[in-house]
Amino acid sequence: MKRRRDPQDIAVFTRNHRKYLEEAADVSARDPNRIIVFRARSKWVTALRAIPVGASLPIYMGAIGGTGEVEYEAELCDGQIGPRRGDSKTETLLASVLKSTAEEGLWEKNGKTAETLYAIRACRRRSRPFPITSLVKVSDGQPISPDYGYSYAIVRTHR
């Protein structure tokens, strides 16, 4: 599906573990339309509401503990707030996690469950990474800090 051009031209920024980003890029290289689901410990309400109906949003990803650059990008295409075992959407999304994270469930074993499942597709490593500080948060017009520690931010699309 093509992303509808929004006059605000927004995207999402997040961080994840490099090994998961690399695995997602490998999976997407074989099948760019395959959905890959990640978990987050915070509620991605604003991000999921920003996805246009029937479309997707760009999602920029930096590696946790990485270089401070956006090294990967994909399309944010779906998600669920407050996933619960037995719920049909939760189970459908969990069926699309990476092989390396399949045993994590909703993080029940780690003491704090996932608050959001977010689905991406077409993940790829950028040929030209760019500094996360060049992304501007929609909420306050400020650039993302090099040590940004929140789960995600709505940002202006990188040009």
SSE topology:
Elements: E1 10-16, H1 18-30, E2 36-40, H2 45-49, E3 57-63, E4 69-81, H3 88-94, E5 116-131, E6 152-156
Parallel strand pairs: 1-3
Antiparallel strand pairs: 1-6, 2-5, 3-4, 4-5
Concise summary:
The chain has 159 residues and is α+β, with helices and mostly antiparallel strands. It contains 3 helices and 6 strands; from the N terminus they run βαβαββαββ. A 6-stranded mixed beta sheet has the order 2-5-4-3-1-6.
Describe the model.
By secondary structure, the chain is an alpha+beta fold. The chain has helices at 18-30, 45-49, 88-94; strands spanning 10-16, 36-40, 57-63, 69-81, 116-131, 152-156. The protein has one domain (10-156): Hypothetical protein (Archaeosine Trna-guanine Transglycosylase, Chain: A, domain 4, Roll), CATH 2.30.130.30. The protein is built from three helices and six strands. Strands 2-5-4-3-1-6 form a six-stranded mixed sheet. The radius of gyration is 15 Å and the shape is globular.
Summary keywords:
about 160 residues, Archaeosine Trna-guanine Transglycosylase, Chain: A, domain 4, 6-stranded mixed β-sheet, alpha+beta, about 15% helix
The structural class is: alpha+beta
> Any low-confidence stretches, pLDDT <50, length ≥5?
1-7
Along the chain, the helix and strand elements come as EHEHEEHEE
* Rg on CA atoms, Å: 15 Å
User: Portion of residues in helices?
Assistant: 10-25%
Number of strands: 6
CATH top level is Mainly Beta
The average pLDDT value, as a whole number, equals: 91
Given the C-alpha coordinates, what overall shape results?
globular
CATH homologous superfamily placement: Hypothetical protein
Overall tally of structural domains: 1
CATH topology: Archaeosine Trna-guanine Transglycosylase, Chain: A, domain 4
Number of helices: 3
Distance between the termini: 21 Å
Major sheet details: 6 strands, mixed
Proportion of β residues? 25-35%
